[in-house]
Design a protein that fits this description.
This protein is mainly α. It folds into 2 domains: 13-186, no CATH class; 191-252. The chain is built from 11 helices and no strands. The chain has helices at residues 5-52, 56-66, 73-83, 93-102, 108-120, 126-138, 143-155, 164-167, 172-181, 191-214, 223-252. Helix 5 (108-120) crosses helix 6 and helix 5 packs across helix 7 (143-155). The longest helix is centred in the N-terminal third of the chain and has 48 residues, at 5-52.
């Protein structure tokens, strides 16, 4: 009969093991829940937009895309929507083009990843930034992947202004090769543009932080708190808006390169 020392040594490791398993399970549950929340919120957004806008032109466009030859971008867009049982969203038709062209699936995770790519690619629009921030908050496990997608977007040709009408008849593989193989590094770096973009992001981050910090005090019954928080909140809003406007102006000046 043993002295029990081995049992004591084993018991020291059992609680940490169970704690680790519990932690991994909780992380897995959070990740699945986060993706479900993103998926449901996107579906709700699509439903609301289709209810508020006329979807008939989009639906007719998809029917036309179905008749295009195999291998074209238009045909691949129609197939992607059909395979995922999705309908086009009025005003966001080019969004489906980006999914097919860039190879991002119609999943919550890939939706956020595509926004990271597009931000790096020069799309500084409010929807792109808002969707990326919303997804990044829910998917902290994807931050490294989002940064990688952002860098890929910086190296690729700008595609934020591409639309279905212009590129539907092009071969998808040829377009994809043009986007990813014609490196933007071939163009001279613009230090001033990079500096302006960095400053714009910094202004937006500082403004957003100031607004979030002051927001709770705006509901205070104390007049001093209202005054003390009100002016910094307005200042933060101005900083955020100024940074967003700067990014929009920089995006508008980006030279768009069309496929040969």
């Amino acid at each position: 009969m043993g002295d029990g020392s081995e049992d004591v040594a084993l018991n020291k490791y059992i609680p940490p093991i169970f704690t680790t398993i519990k932690h991994l399970l909780s992380m897995h549950i959070f990740q699945k829940t986060a993706r479900l929340i993103i998926k449901k919120s996107f579906f709700l957004s699509v439903w609301l937009i289709r209810k508020c806008a006329d979807p008939n032109p989009c639906d007719r466009q998809v029917e036309q895309l179905k008749t295009m030859p195999e291998g074209t971008l238009g045909k691949d867009i129609a197939n992607c929507l059909e395979n995922n049982d999705l309908k086009p969203v009025p005003g966001f038709e080019s969004h489906d083009l980006k999914h097919v062209l860039l190879g991002f699936r119609m999943t919550p995770e890939d939706e956020i990843r595509m926004q990271a790519f597009m931000l790096g690619n020069g799309n500084y629009s409010l929807p792109c930034i808002a969707i990326l921030l919303y997804g990044a908050l829910w998917l902290p496990d994807c931050w490294t992947l989002l940064w990688s997608d952002f860098q890929r977007g910086r190296r690729a040709l700008p595609v934020s202004d591409w639309d279905i009408e212009t590129y539907a008849a092009y071969n998808t593989d040829h377009l994809r090769q043009t986007v990813f193989e014609a490196e933007r590094s071939a163009r001279p770096a613009d230090f001033h543009r990079t500096l302006a973009r960095t400053g714009a992001f910094g202004a937006m981050a500082a403004g957003l932080f100031g607004m979030c910090f002051c927001f709770p005090y705006l509901w205070s019954a104390n007049v001093a708190d209202l005054v003390g928080a009100g002016f910094p909140f307005v200042g933060g809003a101005i900083l955020f808006s100024g940074g967003l406007i700067s990014l929009s102006l920089l995006s508008a000046k980006t030279i768009q390169t069309s496929p040969a």
